[in-house]
Amino acid sequence: MSAGPFSLAGRTALVTGANTGLGQGIAVGLAEAGADIVAVGRSAPDETAARVAALGRRLHAVAADLSSTAPLAEVVDEAWRATGGVDILVNNAGVIRRADSLEFTEADWDAVIDTNLKSAFFLSQAVARRWVEAGRGGKIVNIVSMLSFQGGVRVPSYTASKSGLAGLTRLLANEWAAKGINVNAIAPGYFETNNTEALRADEGRSREILGRIPAGRWGRPPDLAGAAVFLASPASDYVHGAILPVDGGWLAR
User: Fold this and answer.
1) Model confidence pLDDT, tens digit, residues 158-177
2) Residue ranges of the domains in the chain?
3) What angle do CA 72, 73, 79 make, to 5 degrees?
């Protein structure tokens, strides 16, 4: 009996920043669909590993700081050694810095761009090279943002990085679709994560945000699972360069 177009049985997904928040929600969702996980990040993904194991799937943790490209070659080498090969890459790791643009520092600019944009591109390149050398395809899912569509305030480097990653999603789709590599993105709306703690703690700002979300609530990490499984599975084999908002209707307002 066929496993179906949404099955990830027998596949391995490399997910950056899978220890908490959106990355954890995505990793667990992919595991529910049958994938084993390579979790890459600065801290040990113990909770994620336990949830993946409870689903009968394996998780291999790779410790790496993605604020520079220095560890990327070893990350890819270790992922292939540990699993025999990666089928799916999810570029989720990200950081944010908040300050008025008149006061924003070069250090805060570089920290965000290097992690959110530069490392995501060069990790995609390193993984795609493996796929092309092997004569096979794969799936890349970039995690962009509402600020890939909108400007935001007080987060200039974050807006620049997520707008840039949306553009790279389309560019890489153009270059790699004919090689059997699908490059797409998910744009989460306002989710309950560490990155939005300051917004949710600001009663006035939180009320404004909720007032614009047609679904009437903040997103939760498991809300991303369905979109991630779709873009990682055979169901999306003819989907290239798409950016799928998962935002409770925010952009439709």
Assistant:
1) 999 999 999 999 999 999 99
2) 12-248
3) 85
Q: Is the distance from CB of 128 to CB of 181 less than 8 angstroms?
A: yes
Q: Tell me the pLDDT tens digit for each residue of 117-133.
A: 999 999 999 999 999 99
Alpha-carbon gap, residue 159 to 231, rounded angstroms: 23
Judge if pTM exceeds 0.85: yes
CATH T-level assignment (fold) for domain 12-248: Rossmann fold (3.40.50)
Partners of residue 89 on adjacent β-strands: 14, 140
3-state secondary structure of 176: helix
Mean pLDDT score, 130-156: 97
Which sequence positions are flagged as catalytic? Answer: 158
Average of per-residue pLDDT across 43-49: 97
Please name the residues in contact with 109: beta carbons below 8 A apart, sequence gap of 6 or more.
97, 156, 157
The stretches of the chain forming alpha helices (DSSP H) are 21-32, 46-54, 72-83, 106-113, 119-133, 156-176, 197-201, 203-212, 225-232
